[in-house]
């Protein structure tokens, strides 16, 4: 376990590890606020991202157990304006409704760019949605945050109280979760960690996502949409909690405080599709011990006879990554938050899971990105100094790592954020280091064209096509250049 904890020390966040109901490690590292250098502590509160769905699911199942609703009720029975009569509550809980995800709100935002989406927008957006369902309800699995936004409307309609009050009364308080609430429940909470991310490949210091989302640069538009525009919905996100409170939630679920044992078993049973098959991820989930997983009623479920049954949930939003790992067979719990867009987060959590089960840590990249430092040096000191520093770091393979993709991303980040001349430098290095890859020539050609170097761009596009004649995008751009 010591080796794993040393690896986790490089993370920016908090990790709690418990075995058979006893906390064996509870560690904080990095900063809750990078700009102000406020450290994370084991009491720091975090945006739990999609772990919030487990609270929404628990609330719906509580209402079912109180006979206020049935899981196979059509949603339209409770929400009269809901336009899809064949979709049931079970379909929403299991992500088998066929409803769109965040693209649902793009027409609304195109019309009202400054609008911040709330749960009240979901049904009107669905009524205005011009596309059919992605599939017949129950036929397939397709993750959609809109499902859980709708479940909040359902909880409020059936219970007669706001979602935040319901969670406080029937989940947080019974479970002893004194540090949890639903946004915007505690404005300017001094214990709430800010979410940070590395905005571009030429940045080495994470920046506050809330500040980034207010910027107008082309690179920030998607960040703005995902964080500011879509940042206020409930049910799918925006439960604020601590690692300690999620452990208390785990205990309350295990001891029957919140749900009957039979209901919890139902919630953890993988959903069966209309054809009788069970949905399963195509790829193993490394944060959960490398197991293939399926989805149940608000929980990601993985079952393996050698490891046990995992009933868990993970989450991600810009600048926050979360995992709530629960091995219900062995009674193991891992809660992990990273609020600085940390590298190898899932590998680090997977290493903790492995350590609990007597397995070696996963391979984790601990070296710094030489591409990032090169890009920062390029803008600060110029091309010559940056090239010298690049070669120094490249020679120091013990502490630095660079990739072809990293140089390519750096080039485009510079190109699209007002540094077209500087963008030529990383693209040029990539051509030297990877002379047999058509894509590096294609990217370099694009940057040369932006810089007005037509003949050089033509030369690079021709080389790209010689290496890959199927590069139709490059062929079209070459033809456009040659016509000018």
What would you say about this model in short?
It contains 20 helices and 16 strands. The chain has 484 residues and is an alpha+beta fold.
Topology (SSEs and partners):
Blueprint: H1 2-8, E1 13-19, E2 22-29, E3 31-33, E4 38-39, E5 46-47, H2 52-65, H3 75-78, H4 89-93, H5 106-111, H6 122-128, H7 145-159, H8 163-175, E6 181-182, E7 196-197, E8 207-208, H9 209-212, H10 221-229, E9 239-241, H11 243-254, H12 261-267, E10 294-295, E11 300-304, E12 308-317, E13 320-327, E14 332-338, H13 345-356, E15 368-369, H14 370-381, H15 383-395, E16 400-401, H16 404-416, H17 420-433, H18 438-450, H19 454-467, H20 472-483
Parallel strand pairs: 15-16
Antiparallel strand pairs: 1-2, 1-14, 3-4, 5-9, 6-9, 7-8, 10-11, 11-12, 12-13, 13-14
Labels describing this entry:
single chain; 484 residues; alpha+beta; seven-stranded antiparallel beta sheet; three-stranded antiparallel beta sheet; 16 strands; 43% helix; 14% strand; globular
Rg, Cα atoms, Å? 25 Å
Poorly predicted ranges: none
Helix content: 40-55%
Strand content bin: 5-15%
Q: Which overall shape is indicated by the principal axes computed on the Cα atoms? A: globular
Number of helical segments with 4 or more residues: 20
Distance between the ends:
63 Å
Mean pLDDT: 92
Largest pleated sheet: 7 strands, antiparallel
- Structural category is alpha+beta
Count every beta strand, where a strand is a DSSP E run of 2 or more residues. 16
Would you give an account of this structure?
The N and C termini lie far apart (about 65 Å). This protein is globular. The chain has helices at about 1-10, 50-65, 75-80, 90-95, 105-110, 120-130, 145-160, 165-175, 210, 220-230, 245-255, 260-265, 345-355, 370-380, 385-395, 405-415, 420-435, 440-450, 455-465, 470-484, and strands at about 15-20, 20-30, 30-35, 40, 45, 180, 195, 205-210, 240, 295, 300-305, 310-315, 320-325, 330-340, 370, 400. The model has no long low-confidence stretch (mean pLDDT about 90). With about 475 residues, it is an alpha+beta fold.
């Amino acid at each position: 376990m010591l080796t794993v904890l040393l690896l986790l020390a490089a993370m920016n966040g908090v990790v709690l590890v418990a075995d058979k109901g006893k906390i064996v490690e509870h560690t904080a590292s990095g900063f809750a606020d990078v700009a102000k250098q406020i450290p994370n502590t084991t009491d720091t509160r975090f945006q739990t991202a999609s772990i919030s769905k487990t609270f929404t699911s628990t609330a719906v199942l509580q209402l079912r157990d109180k006979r206020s609703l049935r899981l196979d009720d059509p949603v339209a029975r409770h929400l009269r304006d809901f336009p899809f009569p064949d979709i049931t509550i079970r379909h929403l809980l299991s992500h088998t409704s066929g409803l769109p995800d965040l693209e649902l709100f793009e027409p609304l935002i195109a019309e009202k760019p400054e609008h911040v989406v709330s749960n009240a927008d979901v049904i009107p957006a669905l009524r205005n949605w011009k596309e059919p369902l992605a599939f017949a309800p129950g036929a397939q699995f397709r993750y959609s945050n809109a499902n859980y936004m709708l479940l909040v409307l359902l909880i409020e309609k059936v219970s007669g109280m706001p979602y935040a009050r319901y969670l406080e009364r029937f989940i947080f308080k019974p479970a002893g979760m004194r540090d949890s609430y639903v946004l915007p429940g505690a404005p300017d909470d001094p214990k709430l960690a800010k979410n940070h991310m590395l905005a571009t490949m030429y940045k080495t210091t994470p920046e506050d996502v809330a500040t980034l989302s207010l910027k107008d640069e082309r690179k920030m538009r998607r960040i703005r949409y995902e964080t500011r525009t879509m940042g206020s919905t409930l049910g799918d996100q925006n439960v604020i909690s601590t690692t300690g409170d999620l452990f208390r939630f785990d205990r309350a679920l295990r001891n029957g405080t919140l749900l009957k044992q039979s209901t919890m078993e139902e919630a953890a049973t993988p959903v069966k599709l209309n054809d009788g098959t069970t949905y399963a991820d195509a790829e193993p989930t490394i944060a959960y011990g490398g197991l293939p997983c399926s989805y149940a009623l608000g929980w990601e479920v993985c079952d393996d006879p050698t490891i046990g049954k995992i009933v868990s949930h993970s989450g991600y939003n810009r600048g926050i990554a979360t995992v709530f790992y629960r091995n219900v067979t062995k009674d193991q719990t891992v809660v992990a938050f990273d609020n600085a867009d940390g590298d190898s987060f899932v590998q680090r959590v997977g290493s903790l899971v492995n350590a609990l089960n007597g397995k070696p840590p996963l391979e984790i990249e601990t070296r710094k990105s030489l591409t990032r430092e090169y890009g920062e040096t390029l803008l600060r000191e110029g091309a010559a100094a940056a090239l010298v520093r690049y070669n120094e770091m490249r020679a120091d393979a013990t502490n630095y790592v660079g990739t072809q993709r990293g140089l390519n991303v750096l080039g485009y980040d510079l190109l699209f954020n007002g540094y077209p001349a500087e963008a030529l430098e990383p693209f040029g290095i990539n051509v030297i280091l990877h002379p047999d890859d058509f894509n590096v020539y294609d990217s370099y050609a694009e940057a040369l064209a932006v810089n007005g170097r037509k003949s050089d761009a033509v030369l690079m596009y021709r080389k790209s096509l010689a290496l890959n004649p199927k590069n139709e995008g490059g062929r079209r751009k070459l033809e456009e250049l040659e016509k000018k």
